[in-house]
């Protein structure tokens, strides 16, 4: 019974993480300092944790929506870059 609960939670985390990293997809080179990048990664992990655990979901979803709106162009460009990288790997 515990293993099943852990498995279900793990599955939920994978689904949430996949969704969030498609949106919050900046790379280290997008930041001026390593500290700024690490703060960004910590924010992403906090968002994932909140959604998986069900903490203040409405506020977190609003924050995600705002981020998507403010960073739409960067998000789309990063997703396109990732798709190109995958295509290149398949051609190898």
UniProtKB/TrEMBL annotation:
Signal peptide: none
Alphabetized InterPro entries for the sequence: MAT1_centre
GO cellular component: transcription factor TFIIH holo complex
Domain MAT1 centre: 12-87
Sequence intervals crossing the membrane: none
A GO BP entry: regulation of transcription by RNA polymerase II
Matching Pfam families: MAT1 (PF06391)
Protein name stated in the entry: MAT1 centre domain-containing protein
Species in which this protein is naturally found: Chara braunii (Braun's stonewort)
Source organism phylogeny: Eukaryota, Viridiplantae, Streptophyta, Charophyceae, Charales
